[in-house]
TrEMBL record:
Enzyme Commission identifier(s): 2.10.1.1
Name of the molecule in the record: Molybdopterin molybdenumtransferase
Domain MoaB/Mog: 176-313
Required cofactor names: Mg(2+)
Organism for this UniProt entry: Pedobacter segetis
Keywords noted in UniProt: Magnesium, Metal-binding, Molybdenum, Molybdenum cofactor biosynthesis, Transferase
InterPro entries to which the protein is assigned, alphabetical: MoaB/Mog-like_dom_sf, MoaB/Mog_dom, MoeA-like, MoeA_C_domain_IV_sf, MoeA_linker/N, MoeA_linker/N_sf
UniProt keyword Metal-binding present: yes
Family matches, as Gene3D superfamilies: MoaB/Mog-like domain, MoeA, C-terminal, domain IV, Molybdopterin biosynthesis moea protein, domain 2, Molybdopterin biosynthesis moea protein, domain 3
Family note: Belongs to the MoeA family.
Domain of life: Bacteria
Amino acid sequence: MISYQKALNIVLSKSKSFGLEEIDLEDALGRVLAEDIVAPRDFPPFNRSAMDGIALRFEDLETGIREFKCLETVFAGAENKFEIQTGECYKIMTGAAVPKNADVVIRIEDVATDLDMMSLLKHDFKIYQNIALMGQDLKKNTVAIQKRSFINPATVGMLASLGKSRILVERLPSVNIITTGDEIIGLHQKPFPFQIFNSNAYTLRALLMEDLIKPEKYTHIKDDRTSLKSAIEKHLNTDILILTGGVSAGDADYIPEIMTDLGVEKLFHKVSIKPGKPIWCGIKGSTLIFALPGNPFSAMVTFKLFVDSFIKKSLGIKPSEFLKLPINFDRSKTSSLDEFFPVINNGVCLDKVAMNGSGDIRLGNSANALAVQEAQTLKLEKGNLVSFLLW
Ligand SMILES: Nc1nc2c(c(=O)[nH]1)N[C@H]1C(S)=C(S)[C@@H](COP(=O)(O)OP(=O)(O)OC[C@H]3O[C@@H](n4cnc5c(N)ncnc54)[C@H](O)[C@@H]3O)O[C@H]1N2
Ligand code: MOO
């Protein structure tokens, strides 16, 4: 048995890019950029009026002129072909290109209009006021968004402003899922009292979907050595293979020995954590195999701690970091394992979530964080600072 940190380091040391692909900008949210995006022109690309008002010359204001003849109205989208002379102004709309020579925009609320004459109602001015200057946000040919950036809604908007309709991103890993167990049935079957529905298949799919990954194949196999071996062999063709069940000490827990038979290199079996202690992890060629414990909460926690961390590191996404807050209840343990438990992080402290161990189907569903009571801490008291991950 190895420690959580050792097991995590082993998993992370296997991280790698899954390759690159070009996608439409519409599909870019949540992906990781695989190219530097260079600004193809200055932004703004022209001196842009930030207000509806009048555009004029600062020089005129300095010489005391307060009344201007309005020549025309410049709308957004009109070509900037106008030149301005002393005592002249243009009416201008927000988003329009400021006429040449003009270096001040006065908002329309601060102007009195009499036919084509505009007189100023305020007398404090600054050069370039209400003008977003060409190139002030980004200069042409500079890197606007760096390779390996995580694409959030703001990045999508920025890519659109830069005119990028297709982008190069990190490819998501291909994943196969195999659940195991004689007692497990599909959701459309009628259960005998000793049977249970296959929740792990759905939980794992949902967890993967949070990372935008759709499993290639999903298979359920009964606890039969031969069928398990041939199913695993067939599914060793993706970047990641996730199994659940059959990894502890039961008579039908065949997974570790089947992996050896199939020539999968074992990276570790058993980690000093609860839930999830029996997790098995190995590698064959370019496939990383996570055999997660069958208990629903163990599968969920070990996915978050190991599979999700591997995916995020491989894609170049910042991993979730442990934060600390005071706990709002007492908690004792007798094991010498790091114990993970669901909590509600209310921003001030960590509230308790009802859970009866790793087989509890509630999966801490009202929780938004996973706290840890470290191996050496047998008792946590209300008010103690506790580490937790957001989830
Ligand atoms: N003698 C020992 N027994 C057990 C140990 C141990 O160290 N020594 N470890 C316990 C721990 S901790 C866990 S966790 C479980 C893990 O067992 P397996 O990974 O071998 O999983 P199974 O025995 O197949 O199933 C465990 C539990 O989970 C339910 N299950 C399985 N698959 C699904 C699924 N797809 N959907 C919903 N529920 C599922 C299954 O019915 C069992 O109740 O072992 C302990 N035992
Ligand atoms: O890992 Mo087990 O998950 O403690 O039940």
